[in-house]
Amino acid sequence: MIIVMRPHAAEAELDAVTTLIASLALTSHISRGAERTIVGVVGAPADKETLLAQFAGLDGVESVVPISKSFKLVSREARPERTIVRIKPGISFGGTEIAVCAGPCSVESREQLETTASAVAAAGANILRGGAFKPRTSPYAFQGLGEEGLKYLRDAADRNGLAVVTEVLDVRDVELVSKYTDILQIGARNMQNFTLLREVGGARVPALLKRGIAATIDEWLMAAEYIYVAGNHQIVLCERGIRSYDQATRNLLDLSAVPVAQGLTHLPVIVDPSHGTGIRNLVAPMSLAAVAGGADGLIIEVHPNPAAAFSDGPQSLTLPMFAELMARIAPVAEAVGRKLPEPATAAA
Amino acid sequence: MIIVMRPHAAEAELDAVTTLIASLALTSHISRGAERTIVGVVGAPADKETLLAQFAGLDGVESVVPISKSFKLVSREARPERTIVRIKPGISFGGTEIAVCAGPCSVESREQLETTASAVAAAGANILRGGAFKPRTSPYAFQGLGEEGLKYLRDAADRNGLAVVTEVLDVRDVELVSKYTDILQIGARNMQNFTLLREVGGARVPALLKRGIAATIDEWLMAAEYIYVAGNHQIVLCERGIRSYDQATRNLLDLSAVPVAQGLTHLPVIVDPSHGTGIRNLVAPMSLAAVAGGADGLIIEVHPNPAAAFSDGPQSLTLPMFAELMARIAPVAEAVGRKLPEPATAAA
Amino acid sequence: MIIVMRPHAAEAELDAVTTLIASLALTSHISRGAERTIVGVVGAPADKETLLAQFAGLDGVESVVPISKSFKLVSREARPERTIVRIKPGISFGGTEIAVCAGPCSVESREQLETTASAVAAAGANILRGGAFKPRTSPYAFQGLGEEGLKYLRDAADRNGLAVVTEVLDVRDVELVSKYTDILQIGARNMQNFTLLREVGGARVPALLKRGIAATIDEWLMAAEYIYVAGNHQIVLCERGIRSYDQATRNLLDLSAVPVAQGLTHLPVIVDPSHGTGIRNLVAPMSLAAVAGGADGLIIEVHPNPAAAFSDGPQSLTLPMFAELMARIAPVAEAVGRKLPEPATAAA
Amino acid sequence: MIIVMRPHAAEAELDAVTTLIASLALTSHISRGAERTIVGVVGAPADKETLLAQFAGLDGVESVVPISKSFKLVSREARPERTIVRIKPGISFGGTEIAVCAGPCSVESREQLETTASAVAAAGANILRGGAFKPRTSPYAFQGLGEEGLKYLRDAADRNGLAVVTEVLDVRDVELVSKYTDILQIGARNMQNFTLLREVGGARVPALLKRGIAATIDEWLMAAEYIYVAGNHQIVLCERGIRSYDQATRNLLDLSAVPVAQGLTHLPVIVDPSHGTGIRNLVAPMSLAAVAGGADGLIIEVHPNPAAAFSDGPQSLTLPMFAELMARIAPVAEAVGRKLPEPATAAA
Q1: pLDDT for the residue A251
Q2: Looking at the DSSP assignment, which residues form a beta bridge with residue A163?
Q3: What is the pLDDT of residues B136-186, one digit of tens each?
Q4: Where is pLDDT greater, at C246 or C33?
Q5: For A110, B5, B283, D91, which has the most beta carbons within 10 A of its beta carbon?
Q6: C79-112 pLDDT, tens per residue?
Q7: For residues D220, D223, D224 and D227, what is the CA-based torsion angle, rounded to 10 degrees?
Q8: Which residues of D touch B244 (CB under 8 A)?
Q9: CA atoms within 13 A of residue D274's CA, in its CB half-sphere
């Protein structure tokens, strides 16, 4: 059961709710979002019907919703309308417009970022991606430029009217990364790093939660629940390929996860066809498929010179390939009643 | 290496080719297709360059192609242009038109077939699907109507201007099933039933080869090679979902298998979103995604009354759902330069 | 529900049972085994309690057992004691003794078989394995010697006091293979080749049913049910590795499948560490682990010269490696209350 | 290539090594272990032979080892003898003795810990396990007692002569947990939490690294490399089951991972049959199998009253079941040349 408080409900009203919960030997999980406070109630009450009515009668309570799933606040039952995660004016996830994040795997240099940002903006992307802190299988692989990389990202994005999405790896870096980015990405390897989920749940920057490499959809939504209950209600889910026995692709892009997840949660769901396949030539067909299948956005690796990329070269599109892909996506988006973002307006 | 003989090359010319192969301690695999004969050469020749020239100089030889893959005749190297599998006038796989097979999982009765066939034809499908011999996990489940079911299929298809695709399970039934069907389906469980592959390779009816439930793409193409080398060159590949750790769907539809396979073979590749997901509500988004991602066709389970279906009810579309889906597919097909079949003309 | 008839129950008694079943709108599946006839009853009766009593009261009925699983005749509920599959005097599966099948992947020549058979017999194996009909991923790979290979197997086994296990691929070959072998092997690729399962179910030679490469344990037992209900009650199950995302081994040997299956069925369960790992050095530790974990037998690939083997060389033990392994297995078997076979006595 | 410095090599000698590395445009990774310093050299040198000789000639260098694997310091090439991780006198991993960790999933109370510790010590375990910080799929599930739980663990272990292993989830808790535990466990979900790996690499407490739920063995060893290169050379690997398509068990215990990993690394490898199967009845057969297959230890969930456990009840052994299991393990260990620990001597 969840209890949705009215916007601007008084603290005393909230206290009355949690006091009643405690008196019933149930547990409250208070999620203070930017817009409203929601109380998750955990435990097995004796008489559910009576209970719902009892809470609905309290002051400041907007609605009381019984939830059948193990994930509660992110479930569709908790919120029938779809959540639109608004990044900045003209940039959002979950509406008619398909958000497009593009950029290199790793931030490598100021020039690389600037070249990429202006090209992807011109082609119609509205968010710049790039890693300043890189999770690498090997301790000997390039680990990212750190704060310097964050500055390059921010600058290149601002000059080209783009928002920024970048990954945070360490709970101790959430504050630092939040200063530079518009969206905090939690990578696949950290999907069940619960301390990081809670820390990002405490940030006031929207989160992009990638699906773990062998996570079930239920586990993915439970991870989102960790962020949500900690107070961050602006969460975008990202399918990025799962592990398969077939080595024909780097990962196995699970496109059916898009409609499955959309049926279970009110949060937007996007697709990463770059990690999802690991092969440049598959990025275009899988991007088109994702959009036709209902994805709320795409996140695509683009590099001015993939052969020289510090990481993920084989799956990165060149700048012209990305522009060509955007031109092919437009009619498919239209065919399913969606559209690409309006061209970004660079800061004068 | 494969040697493509000219159409109508003489037997003596073919003999000269195989004699030369034998003299080099290599092995010939002669594939006598309806249109032309192809000789696969297996073994490790010493001097490849000289050898290619030597064979190219023989009478009756059209071309000699070195092949780097373990599958040879079905590889793109063997045939740069895409194969169009022609079923009957106006019905083909692999061209601009997206073939659409629709119908029930199991053939249950003459009425069921007739109702379904006329509805799917009206909605724009051009091939009727339905199982008369059913592979069932349990020996106690409905095993199909057998030859009676084949007759119902044939009659319903003919009355509605449709072709027929149906599964053959037993090597001893290939001849029987071929009398009634336009396409012999080999199911996922039989993808590596090599004696059945060879028997279907000897039939003059095109084959639809489903991917095994845990087959790699390479193994799938090797299975197609079994059919091809046995003389049946009219093969359609069908992705139908693979095994995954996540039970959110019945199988995991691997849409990236479409462009991956199309990059490796000249054969057409279609998608089965019904088995691929096992859930009715996912059939539409995955059909749209498949078409946008480049699939050459779809095979969809449709039933007049899914709740009463003998098998696969939960994944079957109702007749109106199918008609609505076809209407949604049309603009997506157009957006990627394809189109749906022309409406079938029922036999007067 | 299953109804176990008394040994030598009269046909009229059986008729009375099936007539009652039919009158209740339920379906009979009669399994006529060598020792007794069992009737599987499928359908959903209204009042189970009354029904059980009703059948138990009929003449010739030994017992009536309600079954909660989808597999019925092979379930532990159907038969509380463990089945011992007796191959010939001194050779059985499922008792205290651990059966050991050893031999080459493919039968290659009379000499190869003779050398291997005498060595594995001397080392303590009691069954000779070897493939005369080979299921190969590629149509260009060695497909086996056919009937000639069967003769070599039989002869080598007889001369060394061993039984024979060999694979049958084609329903049309079941009779032929049965003439030469003591155990009909159904390979992993054919685990759901239902026509083959039924045909082997009609043979009077015990069956060895390998688990499919991505089969669940339930599906495996349902496949055994196909054989059992067709009348062959002498079935040995064999775990041989399943598909995994990790390419460190050829397959992933699922040793927990042994106790899981033994908890669900009364049939014996053995392990194939050769296919289960695909790597020679892993065969010994996995054989020891299998025995300690409760396996009723082992099937191991052994070749006089693995480097020259026509197939599966990398996973084959040499003759001395096999002898050394048997010496290491003996104390582990003893530690868990089992023992290796008595040394085979070669036919004089 | 790795360069092993002599014990007590001077800083100036180390400087000479790293200066030479830098002058060759290669990168040094200095791992300062408790016993010796090792320098990993990353990059592609032109003339490997000359280079090896050049480094071998420097003062303070004990040996120079070329490494063919992507993991270097943990590879068997780096250290031919097996590492024995010594926890305290009489408790170690990797020698003849099989280490046995036992205890509850979650620390729940002082009484629970005391009861369990004395029972498992009496049965022959030498390390007490228990979680004070719990990684839980749901934010609403019990998250552990925190520092209080650590105290209970330490006290109960000390009173019973046991060492302690417990999980650390958060980089900020490494110091705190290290105060109470003898072994820092990194759980499966955090196997690629690289910031945590580095932090534990900086601790002077040995590490137990669980394999990720879908990690390849290579990725697992790369994760160990992160810890090793950061200076912690006392690492124990733990196989705990991976994801499978079959829901018959909670995870799929990959016992072949034991000999595979032992062939690739010098670090000890233990097995967790409790998480590896998720089912109480499978813990015994899989423990026996693990020991027979060469595992260097076991970690087993034991609870005085599994039905009331806060977590993992279904896979926990009761105290008598654990004692019975230890009695069954002893002869299997002996059969493969290993033995169980000497009985722990409780602190007077």
Answers
A1: 96
A2: A127
A3: 998 988 899 999 999 999 999 999 999 999 999 999 999 999 999 999 999
A4: C246
A5: B283
A6: 889 999 999 998 999 999 999 999 999 999 999 9
A7: -170
A8: 245
A9: 25
Given this model, what pLDDT does residue B348 score? 38
CB contact under 8 A, C282 and D244: no
Using alpha carbons, list the distances in angstroms from residue C59 to A135, C22, C35: 73, 17, 18
Quick: pLDDT tens for C269-294. Answer: 999 999 999 999 999 999 999 999 99
d(CA A234, CA C284): 54
The residues of chain D scoring below 70 in pLDDT are 45-46, 344-348
Give residue limits of the domains in chain A: 2-66, 85-335
Q: What is the pLDDT of residue D201?
A: 97
CB–CB contact D139 A189 (8 Å): no
Tell me which residue of C97, C93, C102 sits closest to C323, measured CA to CA: C102
> Å from D193 to nearest chain C CA?
20
Inform me whether the pLDDT recorded for C347 exceeds 70. no
Which comes out higher in pLDDT, residue D51 or C163? Answer: C163
Q: What does the pLDDT average to over C291-309?
A: 96
For domain B85-335, the CATH superfamily is Aldolase class I (3.20.20.70)
Q: B2-66 has which CATH code? A: 3.30.70.1140
B235-239/B207-210 β-pairing = parallel
Which has the minimum average pLDDT: A19-28, A327-336, C98-107, C248-257? A19-28
Going C86 to C92 to C93 to C95, the CA torsion angle's sign is: positive
Question: Residue A198: which region, alpha, beta or left (left: phi > 0; alpha: psi -120 to 50)?
Answer: alpha
D148 Cβ contact partners less than 8 Å away, ≥ 6 residues apart: D132
pLDDT at position B69: 80
Put simply, the answer to whether B244 touches D244 (Cβ < 8 Å) is: no
Task: Tell me if B332 and A334 make a contact (CB, 8 A cut-off).
Answer: no
- Mutation site, C239, C240, C246, C271, interface D, largest D CB count within 10 A: C246
Specify the DSSP class assigned to residue C171: G
Q: Give chain D's largest Cα–Cα span.
A: 65
The confidence score (pLDDT) of residue D348 equals 38
The residue type found at A71 is: F
Phi, psi at residue B315, to the nearest 5°? Answer: -110, 5
CA pair distance D348, D346, nearest whole angstrom: 6
Residue B41, CB-side half-sphere exposure with 13 Å CA sphere:
26
For residue B129, what is the DSSP state?
A: E
| Inter-residue contact A222 to A254 (CB < 8 Å) | no
C-alpha A171/C-alpha D271 separation (Å) is 30
Tens digits of residue pLDDT in A201-230: 999 899 999 999 999 999 999 999 999 999
Q: What is the reported pTM?
A: 0.93
Query: How far D49 CA sits from the closest chain C CA (Å)?
Result: 30
Name the DSSP letter for residue C341: P
User: At C142, which amino acid appears?
Assistant: F
Distance CA C2, CA C29 (A): 9
pLDDT at B104: 97
Region of A196 on the Ramachandran plot (φ > 0 left; ψ -120 to 50 alpha; else beta)? alpha
A223/A236 Cα distance (integer angstroms): 12
What is the three-state SS of D188-255? HHHCCCHHHHHHHHCCCCCEEEECCCCCCHHHHHHHHHHHHHCCCCCEEEEECCECCCCCCCCCECCC
Which pLDDT score is estimated for C24?
A: 87
Q: Which residues of A touch B293 (CB under 8 A)?
A: 285-286, 288-289, 292
- D276 near D213, Cβ under 8 Å? no
The closest alpha carbon to B152, from B104, B205, B107, belongs to: B107
